């Protein structure tokens, strides 16, 4: 009993030891700063409560302590990182041309640099595009989508709203090649949510995006990014997430949304990806419970979550991005490694986070997305097509008439849209579906670069080792002459060119499917992710690291196995699942797809009677103490 009381007191002490950090500056909150935030009722929006980092702890759901040198970074409500200083106009307005005039319409840029069309890719299928966009949702929120829905007056009639500071609407020319007969002369678009707008910092500081999710690859789409949200989604039994069986499959309770996250339910491809990892958690927890019958709910939950995230990180680095960047290129830059051992590249000097440049640049995945989602039977029979834009924010329809199963088959059978300086018409003209008559996703992506204060393309050329351009012709080294000529006609100066406009125009690197500047940005961000996160799956120098046998099991994971185990009625698939099936990558039985052997997580303590009995007694005390501590924290709030 005495030990039990001590345990409770320790929990209460930890609650008192929490430190309030300034979300923007990443430092413990000083008294004068706290008083200021309290005076404007902004403390909850502008601070993060962080428990002391512990050497032996696992990954926190709120992302804090991913790097103990920067305890609050990696957490929710933290600013994005920058490769270069922000470039805004006066008062954080959009950057202007060097001559002081407005930069050209992003719709005009898009229609001149990317045409509409339906080319299909001979290498990648739609699954690669789905998971690529899913990775974006995992680290950056879509808060701007709420504004898009709520602020609908950025186009007054057909005229851009220049008064509302939340608006960055896109003007459409009267001779627009695709919309000239529609009468549409303006596309609604809103600005990002910033720390300045929430009152956290002064407008004299360059605007920084207010990001809600954890800015790391940690499946926050599935698990949430706050302790409160984690408590809401857990069953607190056998390590499971709350679920209900429908059509023989696990679904979140109620309306079928993942963690109530709007990002996860935005498009069917993102929803499917989130659902696979949701089911995978419970699949892992159930199997681990059979292997280790003495494990507590907490042990089962944390281990299943750890494995789930580790497999996702492995798939993203070694399968998805290795294919898009080129495996040799990925190896040469150190974002992946050819080894059966640990890769101990954690560096405390790297701050956990995601770069603005990556957030904008990774929108390049939109060019691989096909606005049409093909449906196939599990025998490979084509059943029809659905516009992705018509199913946005309507995840419930996937459970009707085998739609989820048919779309899952289509994900690995349907070729993706080919990036050939062409964008799929639905993505180009009506990506918002019923929310707006017309919205060009690529034009919006260029606008997002301006909204986030990204400097001109020329500065990124210099950063990435390309020669600084003094005239438009200097772009010829990495951009085709016809694209350069279009830029010369549209922009006033070589130093006006937007980063995203150039990313859409650059020639592809040898062995990869991205241009040199985007390659540079992606590599820097992926290095930042793995080096700043002490819990990255390949690190072996932390107490909670995987054992080498466990790590090499994680390295067997694949998107093919993910779908075999968690997709609706997937019994066969090609091994390299994000690539089109064909010679050397034939569709085969799931029995032939390697799987992770979870017996490598066997706990010998579960098979010694005395140890098991002691453990059950300890667990009972531990759970009671935890409940008391939770009750204490709740009352304190």
TrEMBL record:
- One cellular component (GO) term of this entry: extracellular region
UniProt keywords, alphabetically = Glycoprotein, Heme, Iron, Metal-binding, Oxidoreductase, Peroxidase, Secreted, Signal
Location of this chain's protein in the cell:
Secreted
Q: Which SUPFAM superfamilies does the UniProt record give?
A: Heme-dependent peroxidases
GO BP annotations listed = response to oxidative stress
Kindly list the positions annotated as binding heme b.
Answer: 366
**GO molecular function annotations of the record:** heme binding; metal ion binding; peroxidase activity
Transmembrane residues, as ranges? none
Q: Which domain of life is it from?
A: Eukaryota
Secretion signal, residue range per the UniProt entry: 1-17
Gene3D superfamilies from the UniProt entry = Haem peroxidase domain superfamily, animal type (1.10.640.10)
Give the protein's recorded name: Peroxidase
């Amino acid at each position: 009993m005495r030990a039990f009381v001590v345990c409770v007191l320790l929990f209460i002490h930890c609650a008192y030891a929490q430190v309030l950090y300034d979300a923007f500056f990443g430092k413990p909150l000083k008294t004068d700063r706290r008083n200021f935030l309290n005076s404007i009722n902004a403390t909850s929006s502008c601070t993060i409560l962080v428990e002391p980092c512990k050497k032996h702890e696992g990954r926190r759901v709120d992302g804090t302590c991913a790097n103990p040198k920067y305890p609050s970074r990696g957490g929710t409500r933290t600013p994005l990182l920058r490769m270069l200083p922000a470039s805004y106009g006066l008062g954080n307005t959009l950057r202007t041309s060097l001559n002081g005039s407005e930069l050209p319409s992003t719709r005009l840029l898009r229609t001149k640099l990317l045409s509409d069309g339906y080319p299909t890719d001979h290498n990648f299928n739609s699954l690669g595009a789905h998971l690529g966009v899913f990775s974006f949702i995992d680290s950056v929120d879509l808060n701007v989508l709420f504004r898009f829905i709520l602020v609908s007056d950025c186009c007054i009639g057909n005229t851009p709203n220049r008064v509302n500071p939340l608006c960055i609407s896109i003007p459409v020319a009267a001779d627009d090649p695709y919309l000239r007969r529609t009468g549409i002369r303006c596309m609604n678009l809103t600005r990002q949510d910033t720390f300045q707008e929430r009152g956290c910092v002064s407008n004299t500081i360059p605007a920084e995006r207010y990001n809600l999710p954890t800015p790391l690859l940690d499946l926050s789409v599935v698990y949430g990014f706050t302790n409160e949200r984690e408590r809401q989604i857990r069953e607190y039994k056998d390590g499971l997430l709350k679920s209900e069986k429908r059509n023989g499959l696990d679904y979140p309770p109620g309306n079928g949304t993942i963690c109530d996250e709007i990002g996860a339910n935005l498009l069917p491809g993102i929803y499917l990806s989130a659902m696979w990892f949701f089911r995978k958690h419970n699949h892992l927890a159930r199997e681990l419970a059979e292997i280790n019958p003495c494990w507590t709910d907490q042990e089962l939950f944390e281990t299943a979550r750890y494995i789930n995230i580790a497999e996702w990180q492995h798939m993203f680095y070694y399968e998805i991005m290795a294919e898009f960047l080129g495996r040799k290129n990925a190896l040469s830059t150190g974002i992946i490694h050819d080894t059966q051992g640990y890769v101990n590249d954690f560096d405390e000097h790297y701050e956990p986070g995601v770069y603005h440049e990556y957030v904008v640049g990774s929108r390049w995945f939109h060019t691989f997305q096909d606005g049409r989602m093909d449906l196939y039977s599990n025998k490979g029979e084509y059943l029809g097509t659905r516009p992705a834009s018509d199913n946005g924010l309507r995840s419930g329809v996937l459970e009707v008439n085998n739609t989820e199963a048919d779309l899952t088959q289509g994900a690995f059978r349907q070729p993706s849209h080919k990036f050939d300086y062409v964008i799929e018409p639905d993505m180009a003209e009506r990506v918002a579906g019923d929310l707006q008559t017309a919205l060009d996703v690529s034009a919006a992506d260029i606008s997002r670069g301006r909204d986030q204060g990204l400097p001109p393309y020329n500065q990124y050329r210099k950063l990435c080792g390309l020669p600084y351009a003094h005239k438009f012709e200097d772009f010829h080294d990495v951009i085709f002459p016809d694209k350069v000529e279009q830029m010369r006609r549209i922009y006033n100066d070589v130093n006006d060119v937007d980063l995203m406009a150039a990313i859409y125009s650059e020639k592809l690197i040898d062995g990869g499917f991205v241009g040199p500047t985007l390659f540079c940005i992606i590599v820097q961000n992926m290095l930042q992710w793995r080096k700043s996160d002490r819990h990255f799956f390949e690190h072996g120098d932390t107490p909670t690291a995987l054992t080498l046998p466990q790590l090499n099991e994680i390295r067997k994971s694949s998107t093919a196995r993910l779908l075999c185990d968690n997709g609706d009625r997937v019994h066969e698939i090609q091994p390299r699942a994000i690539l089109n099936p064909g010679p050397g990558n034939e569709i085969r039985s799931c029995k032939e797809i390697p799987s992770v052997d979870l017996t490598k997580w066997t706990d010998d303590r579960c098979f010694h009677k005395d140890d098991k009995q002691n453990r059950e007694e300890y667990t009972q005390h531990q759970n009671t103490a935890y409940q008391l501590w939770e009750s204490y924290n709740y009352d304190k709030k």
